[in-house]
From TrEMBL:
Lineage of producing organism: Eukaryota, Metazoa, Spiralia, Lophotrochozoa, Platyhelminthes
UniProt-recorded Gene Ontology molecular function terms: glycerol channel activity
Name of the protein in its database record: Aquaporin-3
Principal location class: membrane
Gene name of the encoded protein: AQP3
Organism name: Cichlidogyrus casuarinus
Highest taxon, organism lineage: Eukaryota
Pfam families: MIP
InterPro entries, alphabetized: Aquaporin-like, MIP, MIP/Aquaporin
Listed NCBIfam families: MIP
UniProt similarity note: Belongs to the MIP/aquaporin (TC 1.A.8) family.
Annotated TM spans: 40-63, 83-111, 123-142, 209-233, 260-280
UniProt xrefs under Gene3D superfamilies: Glycerol uptake facilitator protein (1.20.1080.10)
Length: 324
């Protein structure tokens, strides 16, 4: 007969029971049969994290020391946004693509890195994530924002005051045209650099380093091109928080201020990202030794490479026929 000690040792421990519960719950919640839903949820979380840390840094600087900026400066803002992107990509890059940017999503689809049917659900997830992230920042810093508005504007929420925590706008003396070019060029750099970092045929960079390198790239772009228009570089980063503040006290000025400036950090990044992605593929991507098998075109790289090879092979065959 088994002894009492043997019977006791055969009983599952508390940790073992908790493991069973955790695995059971995880298996029921896991979205194995719905990969697109899983990826969209990852994009939602990653973009929310981006805004929580990014707008959180701005709140720290603007609200800190009663608006005197004693809790940070432009350098801390640039670094904060770079790290915000890094952490957001870490969150979303395992279960999802780790894009957290609608403009980059569309640009990557155009060059064959993302399936086109996923662009719209990814974009909506990113926009919703940005909205929720901004709402959480408002909730955390609500008292400080209210106090600052009461001290400087008799309690009125003004876009060029407390609104700067959440959305971008032109700097004093900078035209909307200059801001549009700024956003286009900044996102051009972002998209082309992101492809240079993540292209497995370029540097063979381990995927676990991608978030860190992309974060450093964002830190550099914001530090170099943040003065004119705030370096939104991401339609969701600006539009999500802009929708939030429009519904939470700032009203229609969120969209009408600065001659309806709101469209610039949406359209500019889209154009810049598309041009940047195509620029990278045409100047670097299709020329890499391992860009793909030209006999089996699977994406933009391979299709373009196939066409180039076909043209030259056809030209060579014509020349050979003439020689005969």
């Amino acid at each position: 007969m088994p002894t009492e000690d043997a019977q006791t040792s055969s009983k599952p421990t508390l940790d073992e029971r908790l493991d069973v519960i955790r695995h059971t719950v995880a298996n029921k919640m896991r979205l194995r049969a719905m990969p697109v839903v899983r990826e969209c949820f990852a994009e939602f979380i990653g973009t929310a994290i981006l805004i929580i840390f990014g707008c959180g840094v701005l709140a720290q600087v603007i609200v800190g020391d009663n608006g005197k900026g004693g809790h940070g400066d432009f350098m801390s803002i640039s670094l904060g946004w770079g790290m915000a992107v890094m952490i957001g990509v870490f969150f979303s890059g395992g279960a999802g693509p780790g894009l957290i940017n609608p403009a980059v999503t569309l640009a990557f689809a155009i060059v064959g890195k993302v399936k086109f049917y996923k662009v719209l659900p990814y974009t909506l997830s990113q926009l919703l994530g940005a909205f929720v992230g901004a709402l959480l920042v408002l909730a955390i810093h609500y008292d400080g924002i209210v106090n600052l508005a009461e001290r400087d504007n008799n309690g009125e929420y003004k876009l060029n005051h407390t609104g700067k925590i959440f959305v971008t706008m032109p700097a004093e003396g900078i035209s909307n045209t200059a801001c549009f070019v700024d956003q286009l060029f900044g996102t051009f750099l972002l998209a082309s650099s992101a492809l240079a970092i993540t292209d497995k045929n370029n540097w063979h960079l381990p995927s676990y380093l991608h978030p860190f390198m992309i974060g450093m790239m964002i830190f550099t772009v914001v530090g170099a091109f943040g003065i004119n228009a705030g370096a939104a570089l991401n339609p969701a980063r600006d539009l999500g928080p802009r929708l939030m503040i429009a519904l939470c006290g700032w009203g229609t000025q969120s969209f009408t201020a600065y001659q309806y400036y709101f469209w610039i950090p949406i359209v500019g990044p889209y154009i810049g990202a598309i041009v940047g992605a195509i620029f990278y593929e045409m100047t670097i991507g299709i020329h890499l030794d391992e860009a793909g098998d030209p006999s089996l075109p699977k994406n933009f790289n391979d299709r373009v490479r196939s066409v180039i090879i076909l043209i030259f092979s056809h030209t060579d065959s014509i020349g050979a026929q003439k020689n005969h």
